[in-house]
Structure formats: structure tokens, C-alpha cells
């Protein structure tokens, strides 16, 4: 079974645009769970442009499915936030400070010492650690050497290549996923997954543990309604 974790960053973007509390991120998280999502993902960034650090504390109080916090652990504040909240999973992402969104995975070989130390800190607090990587078997193997529990494959290149040639676009992801299976890592995937490309990814890599989806899902909900949309994504994950 592949779990759907809904990334609610975009709900916070909308809320912040007016400075009030509409839409309410806690309500949306609880509604996503009620509609069948098996997890909630947030990606607080240092500028708090969408999810605020306080949102993480508030969500931790109410989320009953898997809570996944994504972010760059080179920020001390991020590490403290995660340790204070003890989510089910932390996903380590090497975000550049002013990048509009995440745009690459870790070099798990070049950053081996830093990642190994950080992963040990999170794991000793009982938090599962997933490392965001490009679809490169060497980076997957590197994550294993650093002590990660899972990798999250950065799926933007798959989404970008899907319409031109989906077999070609998915191939590096199958190789990376095979490596994860071979070395005993759990497998997540995310970034730009959508109703167009999700089912083929699932068919190609049936052992995916989890996908986290935000931008497309929240955009679809404008037209299709949140309940219907969450359920449509869940159906795409059925084989
Ligand atoms: C790690 C990842 O791919 C997502 O978390 C993505 O970066 C969403 O973040 P934004 O909503 O800030 O674009
Ligand atoms: N980890 C990926 C994620 O949480 C959502 O990415 P996106 O669907 O907003 O591109």
C-alpha cells in the first residue's frame, strides 16, 4: 500500500496572503484526514512564507495520521523544531535559502558526515528519517550509509518528462527504487505529482511506501472540492 500524505503548505500560503486565519490550516489538515489521507506533510521554511513554526506545534496537537515535517537541517531552528515536536517522520531537504521551491536532492556522498550526525540525532529521538534524493542509485546507497530509514525520490524530472515519454521519464526512478529495495530503505516520492502522473508512477514502482503531494492536489481542489480530490488521488494509488 502506498500512503498519501497531503502537503498543506499552499493552504498556509493562502492564509498568509490576508494575515488572518482563513483558511485554517488545522481544519484543512483534519479534513484531509477525514477524507482519507494517511498523512499530513508540512515544509516550514526559514522565512515562514507559508507554514509558520507555530503551525507545526499546533498541528502536532491535532494530527492523528502520520505527521511528516520537511526541511533543511542545516538550519538550527529547524532541528530544534523537529525535536520539540517529534513527528512520525522528518524529511531532510537541501533547500537553498531563496529557492522558490525544492529543486534538488542531497549529495549524500559529499555530505556524508553532516547527514550521518543529523540522522543519528533524529533517530535517537524516535523519529523516522527520510532523505530527499535525485533518482540516482549512488545517492540512494549514500543515504543508507548515512543511516537513513527511507529516501524520498525528487519526482520533478519525472513529472516534467511525463507527457513526452513517460517510460523514459520513469526509468531512472525505477533504478533508484530498485536500489532502495536492495539496500533495505523505505521509499517515498514527491514533488509535482499530480492526477496525470501519479498512477503510472505507482504502477511502475508498486512498492512505494508514501507520496507527499501539495501543489497539484490543492490546485485541483479548487475545481473538484477537497474531499473529492483527496479521494481521487487515493484511487490513483490503487493498482
Ligand atoms: C520537498 C518537496 O519537494 C516539497 O516539500 C516541496 O518543496 C514543497 O515546498 P513548497 O510548498 O515550499 O514549494
Ligand atoms: N515532498 C513533496 C511534497 O511534500 C509536495 O510537493 P508538491 O506536490 O507541492 O510539489
Q: How many individual β-strands?
A: 8
Structural class: alpha/beta
Q: What ligands are attached or bound here?
A: 1-deoxy-D-xylulose-5-phosphate, the ligand NCC(=O)COP(=O)(O)O
Shape type: globular
Distance between the termini: 9 Å
Helix content: 40-55%
Strand content: 15-25%
The CATH superfamily appears as: Aldolase class I
Output the number of helix runs.
11
Question: What spatial order of strands do you see in the largest sheet?
Answer: 1-2-3-4-5-6-7-8
Tell me the radius of gyration.
17 Å
CATH topology, anyone?
A: TIM Barrel
- Ranges with pLDDT <50 over ≥5 residues? none
- Label the CATH architecture: Alpha-Beta Barrel
What profile does the largest beta sheet have? 8 strands, parallel, barrel
Instruction: State the assembly state of the protein chains.
Output: single chain
Labels describing this entry:
single chain, 239 residues, alpha/beta, TIM Barrel, eight-stranded parallel barrel, 8 strands, globular, binds 1-deoxy-D-xylulose-5-phosphate, binds the ligand NCC(=O)COP(=O)(O)O
Task: Compile the SSE list and pairings.
Elements lengths: L2 E5 L1 H8 L8 H10 L4 E4 L10 H10 L3 E6 L4 H10 L3 E4 L19 H13 L3 E6 L3 H10 L3 E5 L1 H6 L4 H18 L2 E5 L7 H7 L5 E4 L1 H10 L1 H11 L3
Parallel strand pairs: 1-2, 1-8, 2-3, 3-4, 4-5, 5-6, 6-7, 7-8
Helix pairs in contact: 2-3, 5-6, 6-8, 10-11
The structure holds 1-deoxy-D-xylulose-5-phosphate and the ligand NCC(=O)COP(=O)(O)O.
The site of 1-deoxy-D-xylulose-5-phosphate has 12 residues, from loops.
Amino acid at each position: 500500500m502506498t500512503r498519501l500524505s497531503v502537503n498543506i503548505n499552499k493552504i498556509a500560503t493562502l492564509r498568509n496572503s490576508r494575515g488572518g486565519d482563513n483558511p485554517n490550516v488545522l481544519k484543512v489538515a483534519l479534513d484531509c484526514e477525514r477524507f482519507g489521507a494517511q498523512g499530513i506533510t508540512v515544509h516550514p521554511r526559514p522565512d515562514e512564507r507559508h507554514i509558520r513554526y507555530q503551525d507545526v506545534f499546533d498541528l502536532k496537537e491535532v494530527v492523528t495520521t502520520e505527521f511528516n515535517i520537511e526541511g533543511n537541517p542545516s538550519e538550527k531552528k529547524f532541528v530544534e523544531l523537529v525535536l520539540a515536536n517529534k513527528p512520525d517522520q522528518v524529511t531532510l531537504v537541501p533547500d537553498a535559502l531563496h529557492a522558490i521551491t525544492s529543486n534538488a536532492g542531497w549529495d549524500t556522498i559529499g555530505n556524508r558526515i553532516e547527514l550521518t550526525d543529523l540522522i543519528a540525532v533524529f533517530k535517537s529521538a524516535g523519529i523516522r528519517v527520510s532523505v530527499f534524493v535525485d533518482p540516482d542509485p549512488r545517492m540512494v546507497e549514500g543515504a543508507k550509509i548515512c543511516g537513513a530509514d527511507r529516501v524520498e525520490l525528487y519526482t520533478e524530472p519525472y513529472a516534467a518528462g511525463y507527457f513526452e515519454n513517460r517510460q523514459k521519464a520513469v526509468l531512472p526512478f525505477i533504478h533508484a527504487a530498485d536500489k532502495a529495495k536492495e539496500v533495505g530503505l523505505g521509499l517515498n516520492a514527491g514533488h509535482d505529482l499530480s492526477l496525470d502522473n501519479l498512477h503510472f508512477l505507482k504502477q511502475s514502482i508498486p512498492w512505494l511506501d508514501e507520496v507527499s503531494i501539495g501543489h497539484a492536489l490543492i490546485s485541483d481542489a479548487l475545481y473538484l472540492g477537497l474531499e473529492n480530490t483527496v479521494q481521487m488521488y487515493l484511487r490513483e494509488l490503487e493498482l
